[in-house]
Structure to design on (385 residues):
């Protein structure tokens, strides 16, 4: 190190203020919550997995599902598990970012639509969401308004998102706290039918990102052949994760605001002929010996138990990017480690904002969560599609 000559110090003097300002800017931006990507997972309060048992070191973001919208008061309410969730998961990973998810698949769309259709109820909802998030130490809020079917619902959602984001900006500037993150879980494609379309321009402008629910395309009650419910590709032109992501990008939501959602569960079919056991093999509804009697869903942890107990055959199909397993007349379409790793590489190679799993309580010994986390960190290997 050399000592600066007095004259060179004098020459530097006019620039010192600029240098100090530049250093302060770097300092300031480091103080903000930096989000570079999402290695995310939803924790469902009714999954049977205690929040304290979550290996939060395998995630950058964890969503607590779900807080409820009270249709009488239009306020958001949380269970005690969601109220303590940020503190609980920070014990193993102090830097994991936490979001409070509101709604979920079991809530009727009309409940959200009613709230979102009036200025006063929107205000009540938004204010209570911010109060709750701050009271529990969440970093953000996630809207899980599902089953929308009408253009008027999409218009109300757009208004809600605009006002919500403005309120978050106001709250941050008046308190000096980091702005709360705002996200939503959305359908695999923004275009639900010719008239009904998610407000993509409003979403791109107001949300930090969306979690694209690229699953539940088929179930055993609605399909006479075995299928992957969450294929990344479908050469026959059916719904797929990649076609949905493409539709969101073409619809105006930049890839940097898209997070690929994948399932930690599958669907159990009953085969018509145990010797015809590939994809698109004849099937006769739900196999209720393993599948949930409602839709035929099976958690990954149960699929692993089935594979071990029945010595089932496991196949990975790289054309569709799905796994399936079978034994006798039981056939399950699901994502195992190969499908998960390939989907994560796809998200990374396509420069999406990350991935999110629904839901982590269905994992088996953190196998899929760890596979996803490592695949994102590892060098990507799948061609950009
Ligand atoms: C995946 O399954 C389809 C449908 O059964 C089949 O046509 C295709 O060859 C399979 N791909 C691979 C790589 O096995």
């Amino acid at each position: 190190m050399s000592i600066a000559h007095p004259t060179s110090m004098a020459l530097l003097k006019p620039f010192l203020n600029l240098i100090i300002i530049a250093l302060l800017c770097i300092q300031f931006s480091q103080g903000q919550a930096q989000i570079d990507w999402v290695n995310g997972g939803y924790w469902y309060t009714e999954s049977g997995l205690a929040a304290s048992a979550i290996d939060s070191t395998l995630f950058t973001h964890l969503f607590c599902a779900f807080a409820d919208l009270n249709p009488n008061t239009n306020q958001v309410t949380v269970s005690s598990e969601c109220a303590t969730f940020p503190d609980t998961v920070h014990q193993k990973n102090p830097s994991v970012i936490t979001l409070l998810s509101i709604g979920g698949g079991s809530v009727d769309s009309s409940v959200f639509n009613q709230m979102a259709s009036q200025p006063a109820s929107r205000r009540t909802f938004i204010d209570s969401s911010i109060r709750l998030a701050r009271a529990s130490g969440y970093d953000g809020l996630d809207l899980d308004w599902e089953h929308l079917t009408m253009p008027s619902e999409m218009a109300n959602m757009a208004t809600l998102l605009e006002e919500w984001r403005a309120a978050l900006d106001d709250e941050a500037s008046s308190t000096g706290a980091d702005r709360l993150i705002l996200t939503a879980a959305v359908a695999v494609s923004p275009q639900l039918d010719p008239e009904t379309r998610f407000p993509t321009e409003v979403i791109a402008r107001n949300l930090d990102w969306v979690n694209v629910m690229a699953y539940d395309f088929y179930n055993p009650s609605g399909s006479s052949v075995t299928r992957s419910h969450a294929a990344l590709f479908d050469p026959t032109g059916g719904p797929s994760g990649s076609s949905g992501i493409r539709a969101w990008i073409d619809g105006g939501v930049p890839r940097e605001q898209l997070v690929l959602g994948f399932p930690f569960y599958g669907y159990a079919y009953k085969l018509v002929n145990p010797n015809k056991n590939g994809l698109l093999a004849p099937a006769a509804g739900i196999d209720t010996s393993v599948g949930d009697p409602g839709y035929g869903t099976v958690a990954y942890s149960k699929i692993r138990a089935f594979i071990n107990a029945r010595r089932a055959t496991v196949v990975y199909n790289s054309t569709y990017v799905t796994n399936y397993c079978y034994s006798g007349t039981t056939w399950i379409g699901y994502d195992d480690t190969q499908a998960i790793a390939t989907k994560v590489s796809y998200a990374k190679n396509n420069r999406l904002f990350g991935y999110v799993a629904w839901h982590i309580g269905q994992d088996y010994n953190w196998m899929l969560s760890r596979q996803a986390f490592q695949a994102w960190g590892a060098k990507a290997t799948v061609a950009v599609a």
Notes: Confidence is low (pLDDT under 50) at residues 1-7, 18-32, 380-385.
